[in-house]
Amino acid sequence: MPILFRNDFQGRLPRVNEPHVLKTAGILLERAGMSGAELSVVLVGDREIAELNKTWRGRSGPTNVLAFSLTEGEDVAMAGNLLGDLVISVETAAREARIDGISVHRRLDILLVHGFLHLLGYDHEKSDPEAERMFRKEKELLQDLTGKRREEMIRLAVNVDHVATLREARGISEPDPVLAAGLCELAGAEGIVVHLREDRRHIQDRDVRLLRQTVKTKLNLEMGAAKEIIEFALELKPDMVTLVPEKRKELTTEGGLNVAGQKKKLKGVIARMSKAGIPVSLFIDPDSKQIQASSKVGATFVEIHTGRYSDAASEEEMEQEFQLIAAAAEEAYEAGLRVNAGHGLNYVNTSRIAALETIEELSIGHAIMARAIFVGLDQAVREMLALMM
Q1: Which positions are annotated as active-site residues?
Q2: CATH 3.40.390.30 domain range(s) in the chain
Q3: Calpha distance 82→210 (Å, rounded)
Q4: What is the 3-state secondary structure (H, E, C) of the chain?
Q5: Cα(254)–Cα(268) distance, rounded to whole angstroms?
Q6: Quick one: 155-387 is in which CATH superfamily?
Q7: pLDDT tens for the chain, residues 1 to 389
Q8: Spelled out in words, what is the top-level CATH class assigned to the domain 3-146?
Q9: 310 CB-contact burial (10 Å; exposed 0-12 / middle 13-18 / buried 19+)
């Protein structure tokens, strides 16, 4: 699809998901029956768009989007399939997103649709009926964009803690979580997750050392910010660590880390890990305060806690929790963080989370191990991967 895209925005934040913008532009061309037309999309800052606004419209100050049509109302074929140029200010889009209470990427979608319709000849300034016609078309296209799934497949990381839990229940040597990790990788998992708890209730130090030697994809060590575990991680050097809250009596991690309430401590831990070349993820609830705190303490990733979504007792509650996760994932991405998600996801509720474009990886353990009892571990992993496509 001939989309000419350039990101000239010089600001560090918000971070723009360039594949998302390209995908949106491609969908708009497809929906208009103009897949062969050439469209240019350029992202800039306020200063650059203000200069264009002054030069071409005689108006001072920045605007959100400028549309430069190369057809001037003529048939696209008459212009050699050159539709036109869209120039969007990321800074203005970010301000408008904050006012509207939406993500920057949702605002960019709105501006792409608005500018694209101008290129097609719609003009809301011409008359009230024309404004209404353009509004209806914008609404139609935005609804269509919302229903489109991601194109790049999300990654699956499998937590093998429950294999160790079963072993420790008998105090013997099997089943072996290291062997389970290898089977998960062979079935297509792109990461292995283990939680080394202070009380060593399931995963043991020896397990993690063996996994460090045998895992071919990526080893993610979940851990509390306890001195002993920190020292172990620094010695082991896993591919990444995920800091989680840890209570001795909990059956599983019950909620997200309170990053905002312990920024000094976590910043120190992250600094030590970073010096050792270990990226850090923070397991947090889908909460704006925790996202901003995670960015300030220097985390590379956040893992959005999906527990309340997974445990929702009604469709309405599930929808509310999903929207919180979607908004949090967008906000974290735009804050410069990489985004994962997990906790409680299963064969019924995973697909919708997997469709969120800003999430790179899902961490799933219990559901896969429970399914494996009936169909085998290889099949259980493959079935989950199929749901994530």
Answers
A1: 195, 222, 343
A2: 3-146
A3: 58
A4: CCEEEEECCCCCCCCCCHHHHHHHHHHHHHHCCCCCCEEEEEEECHHHHHHHHHHHHCCCCCCCEEEEECCCCCCHHHHCCEEEEEEEEHHHHHHHHHHHCCCHHHHHHHHHHHHHHHHCCCCCCCCHHHHHHHHHHHHHHHHHHHCCCCCCCCEEEEECHHHHHHHHHHCCCCCCHHHHHHHHHHHCCCEEEEECCCCCCCCCHHHHHHHHHHCCCCEEEEECCCHHHHHHHHHHCCCEEEECCCCCCCCCCCCCCCCCCCHHHHHHHHHHHHHCCCCEEEEECCCHHHHHHHHHCCCCEEEEECHHHHCCCCHHHHHHHHHHHHHHHHHHHHCCCEEEEECCCCCCCHHHHHCCCCEEEEEECHHHHHHHHHHCHHHHHHHHHHHCC
A5: 24
A6: Aldolase class I (3.20.20.70)
A7: 588 999 999 988 888 988 889 989 999 998 888 888 889 999 999 999 999 999 999 999 999 999 998 765 455 444 557 789 999 999 999 999 888 878 889 899 999 999 999 999 898 888 888 889 999 999 888 887 876 555 567 999 999 999 999 999 999 999 999 999 999 999 999 999 999 999 999 999 999 999 999 999 999 999 999 999 999 999 999 999 999 997 655 555 568 999 999 999 999 999 999 999 999 999 999 999 999 999 999 999 999 999 999 999 999 999 999 989 999 999 999 999 999 999 999 999 999 999 898 999 999 999 999 999 999 999 999 999 999 98
A8: alpha beta
A9: buried
All CATH 3.20.20.70 domain ranges of the chain, comma separated, are 155-387
Q: What is the rounded CA–CA span in Å between residue 223 and residue 241?
A: 7
Nearest to 324 by CA among 307, 337, 338, 336: 307
